[in-house]
């Protein structure tokens, strides 16, 4: 085969481009709820696989859940989790595991058997898994099969609303990578995050709606969409905060309000513009040093009528990592102690060599181990790396 074009095959077999094109056509034509079944049939025909299984990462980032309904895979040492964590193929036990990831958003792992002997064909199957990831995201609004299949328990109504509001759970570009997580994953209330980028800037917001249950979720939904509306109108960051503030005050008349942190990172210079409206805390990991980034505290969104917000700026160094953590992290308590600043800084330092999603998982895993159970109060953790490359 011509490795540059994939258009010839001296052995007379199906060419690489033909195989991959066939898979893409198969997935594009498949009913939304039958992607895996149609993919399995096509892979059996073109690659000789007899087993095709999709394992989706659950909402808690703690289990890989087979779409077939088999037992979830738990444990960092398993082939599926090694594939998910390192985002590379893993061959073990007669099966090939490849990551199902779209633009850095890790959805799960595709497990295939038997394993092709040809490394080039295994590389093609990695491309197949990426194509599957794009299709899963595309069909999600039209079927509940994959959303339900990624759960190990029922979500509360408030959590359902919060998860549907998110832009994804991780994102990668040459200039940055980021990830976020909500806890307790199956019962989260008012905490949430949002992000967007245009190749030159990345916007990140973390919010916490006051109240409990659906009341908090509805407030967070209003605030997030008001911020998106202002951002998409091209407003400056401080004006985005003011527009959202007006929207929330107009509806709730100050009875309810929303804590928020708005960030805008210039991907060329590393300059961060920030608006702190009663927000979570912001930490910078620079080398092995954890820096508490000081911010000018302003009123939460919607607390008063006509609040004027001011932005501030600080600079990142290439390779810096930002952590945004809500109060539910340092304030989490076991039966005998509070998690606190020392443990938080230690957990942040420990993530230096990890990708952002692994870093988020590590910090929250340490927090759950400290508490000894699922978290009681809401917590949001977002991790952002700036590489300096555009």
UniProtKB/TrEMBL annotation:
Highest rank taxon of the organism: Bacteria
Matches recorded under SUPFAM superfamilies: PP2C-like
UniProt-listed Pfam families: SpoIIE
Gene Ontology molecular function: phosphatase activity
InterPro entries referenced in this protein's UniProt entry, alphabetically: Bact_Sigma-Reg (IPR052016), PPM-type-like_dom_sf (IPR036457), PPM-type_phosphatase-like_dom (IPR001932)
UniProt keywords, alphabetically: Hydrolase
PPM-type phosphatase domain sequence ranges: 173-386
Database matches in PANTHER family: STAGE II SPORULATION PROTEIN E (PTHR43156:SF2), STAGE II SPORULATION PROTEIN E-RELATED (PTHR43156)
Name the record gives this protein: PPM-type phosphatase domain-containing protein
Organism: Plantactinospora soyae
């Amino acid at each position: 085969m011509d490795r540059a074009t994939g258009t010839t095959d001296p052995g007379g077999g199906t060419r690489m481009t033909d195989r991959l094109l066939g898979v893409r056509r198969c997935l594009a034509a498949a009913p939304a709820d039958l992607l895996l079944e149609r993919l399995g049939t096509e892979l059996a025909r073109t690659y000789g696989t007899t087993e095709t299984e999709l394992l989706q990462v659950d909402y808690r980032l703690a289990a890989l859940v087979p779409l077939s309904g088999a037992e979830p895979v738990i444990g960092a040492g398993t082939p599926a989790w090694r594939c998910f964590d390192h985002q590379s193929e893993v061959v073990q036990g007669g099966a090939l595991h490849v990551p199902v990831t779209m633009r850095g958003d890790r959805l799960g792992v595709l497990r295939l058997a038997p394993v092709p002997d040809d490394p080039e064909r295994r590389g093609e199957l990695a491309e197949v898994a990426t194509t599957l990831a794009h299709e899963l995201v595309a069909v999600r609004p039209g079927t509940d099969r994959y959303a339900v299949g990624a759960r190990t328990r029922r979500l509360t109504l408030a959590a359902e609303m919060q998860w549907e509001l998110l832009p994804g759970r991780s994102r990668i570009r040459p200039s940055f990578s980021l990830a976020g997580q909500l806890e307790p994953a199956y019962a989260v209330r008012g905490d949430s995050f949002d992000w967007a980028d245009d190749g030159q800037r990345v916007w990140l917001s973390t919010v916490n709606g006051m109240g409990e249950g659906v009341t908090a979720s509805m407030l967070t939904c209003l605030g997030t969409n008001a911020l998106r509306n202002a951002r998409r109108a091209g407003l400056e960051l401080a004006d985005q905060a003011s527009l959202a503030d007006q929207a929330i005050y107009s509806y709730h008349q100050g009875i309810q309000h929303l804590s928020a942190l708005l960030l805008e990172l210039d991907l060329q210079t590393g300059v961060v513009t920030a608006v702190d409206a009663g927000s979570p805390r912001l930490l910078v990991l620079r080398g092995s040093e954890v820096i508490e980034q000081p911010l000018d505290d302003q009123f939460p969104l919607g607390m008063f009528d006509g609040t004027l917000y001011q932005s501030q700026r600080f600079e990142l160094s290439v390779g810096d990592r930002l952590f945004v953590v809500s109060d539910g992290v340092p304030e989490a308590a076991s039966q005998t102690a509070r998690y606190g600043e020392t443990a938080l800084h230690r957990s942040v330092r420990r993530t230096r060599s990890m990708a952002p999603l692994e870093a988020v998982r590590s910090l929250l895993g340490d927090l759950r181990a400290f508490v000894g159970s699922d978290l009681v109060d809401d917590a949001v953790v977002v991790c952002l790396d700036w590489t300096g490359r555009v």
